[in-house]
């Protein structure tokens, strides 16, 4: 070890001299990765989301590419284009299926909520805090409320907590 190396402090922001980048050497030799070009689908999605100004019945209207395409397809179907007519009916069927699935999900969620609401949960259970446990007698009456230093943080972490076997009611 040379005399200069012994005097050099090594620490935060001061790496050993032999591990530093050499002069003229980049810290990232490969450089920043090149930006990947968009694919056709990404370009189409951008165009369909883009606002277009069109003239309808003598008035200027602003709509997205999606709305404009749907309107044009509907106009063609109403003029008698068989392919456009078939496509409109296909899209309508897809929409109805999606709406039915959404309604089924909402119905299932409502059933779960109704079951939870109608479940007989003792009032004490609704007000207990993290880190509390209620012990019940055989007749269903609460006997002891135990508390312990919880594994979840409380708002009043600096105040005294109850100990095991504490029979005080939890604060409301």
How many domains, in number, for the residues?
2
Unreliably modeled segments = 161-165
Helicity level: 40-55%
- Strand portion: 5-15%
- Radius of gyration based on Cα positions: 35 Å
Span between N and C termini? 70 Å
Q: Report the mean per-residue pLDDT as an integer.
A: 79
> Order of strands in the sheet with the most strands?
1-2
Q: Could you spell the SSE succession in H and E letters?
A: HHEEHHHEE
Q: Tell me the structural class.
A: alpha+beta
Helices, by number, come to 5
Largest β sheet strand count, sense and barrel closure:
2 strands, antiparallel
Shape call? flat
SS elements, strand count: 4
Tell me briefly what this model is.
Helix 3 crosses helix 4.
Descriptive report:
The chain is α+β, with helices and mostly antiparallel strands and 172 residues long. It folds into two domains: 40-118, no CATH class; 120-167, no CATH class. The chain is built from five helices and four strands; from the N terminus they run ααββαααββ. It has a two-stranded antiparallel ribbon. A two-stranded antiparallel sheet has the order 3-4. β3 and β4 form a beta hairpin.
């Amino acid at each position: 070890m040379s005399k200069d190396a012994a005097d050099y402090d090594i620490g935060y922001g001061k790496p050993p001299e032999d591990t530093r980048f050499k002069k003229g050497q980049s810290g990232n030799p490969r450089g920043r990765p090149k930006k990947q070009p968009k694919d056709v689908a990404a370009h189409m999605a951008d165009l369909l989301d883009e606002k277009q100004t069109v003239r309808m019945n003598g008035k200027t209207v602003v709509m997205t590419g999606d709305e404009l395409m749907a309107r044009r397809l509907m106009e063609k179907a109403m003029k008698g284009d068989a392919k456009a007519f078939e496509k409109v009916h296909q899209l309508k069927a897809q929409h109805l299926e999606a709406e039915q699935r959404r309604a089924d999900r909402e119905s299932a969620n409502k059933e779960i909520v109704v079951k939870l609401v109608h479940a007989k949960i003792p009032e004490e259970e609704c007000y207990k805090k993290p880190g509390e446990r209620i012990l019940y007698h055989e007749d269903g009456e609460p006997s002891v409320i135990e508390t312990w230093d919880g594994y979840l943080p409380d708002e009043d972490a600096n105040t005294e907590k109850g100990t095991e076997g504490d029979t005080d009611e939890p604060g409301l």
